[in-house]
Amino acid sequence: MNTLVVRPTRVRTAGVRQQLLMTAQQRLMILMLLFMAAIFLVSLRLLYFAAFDTTPRRGGAAAFVPARADIVDRNGVPLARTIDGYSIRVVPSKLLNNRAYLADELVKIFPDTPREEFLAKLNGSRATYIRRRALPDQVAAVNAIGDIGFDFPREKERLYPQLSLAAHTLGFINAEGQGVTGIEGAYEKRLTDAATRGQPLALSIDARVQGVLESELGNAVTNLEAIGGAGIILDVHTGEVLAMSSLPTFNPNKLTGSDPATRRNAVTYNLYELGSTFKPLTVAAAIDAGTVTSMARRYDATQPLAIAGFRIRDSHPAGRWYNVPETLIHSSNIVTAQIADELGREKMEAMFRSVDFDKRPGIELKERAFPLWPKNWGRLTTMTTGYGHGIAVTPLHLASAYAALVNGGIYRPATMLKLGDKAPPQGRRVFKASTSARMRQLLRLIVSDGTGKQAEAPGFRVGGKTGSAEKPGIGGYNRTSVVATFAAAFPMDNPRYVIIAMIDQPKGNAYSSGQRTAGWTAAPVVKKVVMRAGPMLGVFPDESRDVDVSELTPLLWRNGEAE
């Protein structure tokens, strides 16, 4: 009889499967718990940042805080920014390819660098930079060489997106990222402080107006074959600098290989004898002091004025007597010297000191020159400084003085910062309001009837004074080297802006009808700048308005007789 045997194999198999399934479920549960825990931790972290983050915010979102604050113009146009830039570096010990081959390839990518320079770096003993501030396509080209000895670190770079625009105002930083000149140097702490670098530093500069000034001044310097130039536009009521240009200029993005001399700011750091542009200041001081009480008073200009073995002459002698308006219109050295002599050293010196001609110009930049003040201030010095010889100042000194001359008599130092809603500095009175009103009439006449005719911009009511000063040289003044300056303001019936244009050593050529003087070289620059930049500054041409000069025009000698 056969016995039935039941084997437990299938039962045991089912039990193992169930056990494995349970184990898998447990592991899945653990993974899910871990995943949920990770999400929970991340959520807690986000909640923490949301609750306690103190990063400055802009527009409701956390703002990126740069290592160095942006610099912008008065309208928010970026002038300097910090970005993550590419660099290309070589580590010679890691190079796989032949050095000569690599040098040949690098020259193809960077044709501005000699092959020998690349070869020296490739054969060096330490890691060195092939190029800082490399363009993305240059990085890609070097990477395509396929050598592991090259690497491409990302570094913080200072970028000047407007290239050379306002270069002397902005300045530049050194290899360590520290400000050296211009705003970069003057506001190093403000630009790098963690508490302030999140907000851009707003300058008083208007990038549009800056571009106009640089364009017109640059054209004149080039066409007149001059060695340089300087220009500034200043708000007469606040002292804000709307534009400042110094030529030759430089690109702060590319300092390597550039001439260090181009980095010198001629507006604030170069000293010049600015010649006849001083004459309105002398006349204003004389009116203020009561030395000149009548515009009709006549002075002898028939012959040179002899004083202390020196003869003061006029550039274009008329051989007749001049009254006060004619003295400025025809720019008489002889008569201005007589007025200065009557005014006297004490009052002349006091006037110069009142407009800070005895100290560095008032502005935030570090690059500020101390004027050349007369050492022996005698009678002759009083007379020659009256027409701008024997004392040297910067163009910025002159701009600030002219602002006080036309704005009602209040002197304020210049500023590179946008004031916005802030009240302008209180300033100090240096000329009487009545004197300032009279000078507005006289400056307008110089443009409408005198040496400044080339600055006449129809409808803009420009007033100003020419100045053509010979440059000092060995043994005296060099008659072939002239600094031509036109100092102006507009609109003269309600002055808002002062503009200075200076050309250093212009050549008399076809561009200036063979003339080197300011009336033919610097004055046309002012006309062009005013016509282009005036509307940008809210000043529009209006030929129905002008300064009332009706009481002075009868004093002018025209066609051989007074009107």
Features:
563 residues, five-stranded antiparallel beta sheet, six-stranded mixed beta sheet, alpha+beta, elongated, disordered C terminus
Give a verbal description of the structure.
The chain is an alpha+beta fold and 563 residues long. The protein has helices at 9-52, 99-109, 115-122, 136-144, 167-170, 182-186, 188-192, 207-223, 279-289, 324-329, 333-343, 345-354, 379-385, 395-406, 433-449, 518-521, 523-533, and strands at 57-58, 61-62, 71-72, 78-90, 128-134, 150-151, 154-159, 201-202, 228-235, 241-247, 299-300, 305-307, 310-312, 321-322, 410-411, 428-429, 463-473, 476-490, 497-504, 557-558, 561-562. The strands form seven sheets. Strands 3, 4, 5, 6, 7 and 8 form a six-stranded mixed beta sheet that branches. A hairpin with a 5-residue loop joins β9 (228-235) and β10 (241-247). The longest helix is centred in the N-terminal third of the chain and has 44 residues, at 9-52. It is elongated and about 130 Å long. Mean pLDDT is 89; it is low at 49-62 and 559-563.
